[in-house]
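Appendix B. Raw example, untouched.
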Amino acid sequence: MTDLSPSDPDGADARAYRRAMGAFATGVCVVTVDGPEGPVGMTVNSVTSVSLEPRLLLWCLDDSAERAGAFLDGRPFSVHVLGADEADWADRFSRGDCRLSADEVHRAETGAPILKGALARFDCVLHEQVPMGDHQILVGRVAHFGAREGAGLTFFRGRYGRIQEGVE
């Protein structure tokens, strides 16, 4: 085990911490919102269910993310849980091509842009925003949701994987 010290947040300790966090397998999601220049998406793996009543979820947004402003304006957003066959979306929205064209999106009842497909989707309105470290925690109140059967896309130690339903 590596003993991590907070004394070097930008150096070797930060890289070691990131590698250690990579040992935690997560699902992969794309969050979409209307930005000033149209709909945009962002890949995240920090989605967590918060409450069943009211239905709340959260995700974490890096303060330095180039698309942060679009998500901080309080507009409705949609969280898309990606299926195992949707790694191309995860790659696309993690950097580079983050804008969505009109033919790529539909609209949720909240008005948020939604992607075609996804294993599950949660259409949200912003419930609360909490600054935490170098991120913002965005808590969404789930207005609508849906899911389909299928394998989920995972992220572990810097690589995509899949998890099948019914695996024990």
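End of appendix B.
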